[in-house]
């Protein structure tokens, strides 16, 4: 496999994956297709944009004709699909945008791949050596109680938010293309990611930025919801491994067995930012502001990534404390990036979310 289409490569996780693939596989041609929505930013890829094995194409995955032209032009033989609307709060405000990008977008990409790969080769034979890898989330499994259980690959889908419902639907379409047309597919479902280049509407970058600027930290509900956090470069390394070594037709859960109650994580962020800014410990605790809970707020996510460890030997590379130190440092040193991505209508969006 040589010509790899990565969708959503200008976003948070996509940019880390594109960087890894461009650096690690000089023989591959990496084609990054991204619509550059508010969440996509070419500045995330400045360091690799001139590499000979990298091409950026601006476009919408929902545009079937464009997708077909892209497969033909670049003779795509592998897809890693990340493009999506990705923020739960936005999905509550505008569910149709999520159905469009995540469901219809995934479907049009699948269809373009099927038409191109099976062209003239009659059915399944045309799929030899091809792969459609779909990047999904643990949120499709719904919500756990605080009872020590985990999501496994066999957990029944039970999405609650428009975001997770749209991702669940896209996962089902990917499996349908495998079962119906024989398309070689792989799916991974990962827990919450953190690290550099994440748009500051998600908890960690938003709170780091707010602590720095002495702005309120809007904690939903009582701050007792639990998330399972993974460093974004470890997600990218897992995708690389599954893409190359995973079993076709299989699903892999990705997570670091790293559960944190929101309020405890927020205290770690406060401590780390205060320390790195040279403020006395605990200075920013006063910024914690409890606000109305998110509608349908899932209580707990926790991933069992045992299969990925047993079958492919994957392990996260970083301890959480080290990952958070690095992440806080990156945001504090890259205020220009934050200012750049939060220009435009960000403030309008932020105010509409009743923050602070
Ligand atoms: P992100 O919002 O940072 O980036 C999404 C990217 O997709 C952006 O660059 C955006 O411009 C692009 N995009 C959106 N709609 C598009 C369209 N119609 N056509 C082409 N490009 C489009 O998201 P992320 O956090 O990097 O997530 C990437 C993928 O990983 C998503 O599929 C998400 O569901 C999944 N995921 C995310 C997490 C997480 O914690 N962030 C965890 C597990 C899985
Ligand atoms: P988020 O980063 O939006 O990821 P997800 O909803 O996909 O898990 O939120 C992580 C957790 O933090 C989630 O329980 C909601 C909570 N949260 C807040 O308490 N305040 C906020 O301003 C945000 C954005 C999230």
Distance between the termini: 49 Å
The gyration radius over C-alpha positions equals: 20 Å
Reading off the top of the CATH hierarchy, the class of the largest domain is best stated as: Alpha Beta
Sheet having the most strands: 7 strands, parallel
Task: List how many beta strands DSSP finds.
Answer: 12
Task: Supply the number of helical segments.
Answer: 12
Uncertain stretches of 5 or more adjacent residues: none
| Bound ligand species | nicotinamide-adenine-dinucleotide, thymidine-5'-diphosphate
Roughly what fraction of the amino acids lie in strands? 15-25%
Q: Would you mind describing this structure in some detail?
A:
By secondary structure, the chain is of the alpha/beta class. The protein folds into two domains: 2-194 and 228-254, NAD(P)-binding Rossmann-like Domain (Rossmann fold); 203-226 and 259-295 and 319-354, UDP-galactose 4-epimerase, domain 1 (Alpha-Beta Complex). It is 42% helix and 16% strand. The protein has twelve helices and twelve strands. It has helices spanning 12-24, 64-74, 88-93, 95-118, 162-181, 203-212, 232-245, 262-276, 306-312, 320-333, 335-341, 346-352; strands at 3-7, 29-34, 54-58, 78-81, 131-137, 185-190, 192-194, 217-220, 226-231, 251-254, 259-261, 288-291. The strands form three sheets. Strands 3-2-1-4-5-6-10 form a seven-stranded parallel β-sheet, sandwiched between helices. Strand 5 (131-137), helix 5 (162-181) and strand 6 (185-190) form a beta-alpha-beta unit. The longest helix has 24 residues, at 95-118. It is globular, with a radius of gyration of 20 Å. The model has no long low-confidence stretch (mean pLDDT 95). Bound molecules: nicotinamide-adenine-dinucleotide (NAD) and thymidine-5'-diphosphate. Thymidine-5'-diphosphate (TYD) binds at residues 88, 192, 202-203, 206, 218-220, 225, 227, 262, 294. Nicotinamide-adenine-dinucleotide binds next to helix 1, helix 4, strand 5 and strand 7.
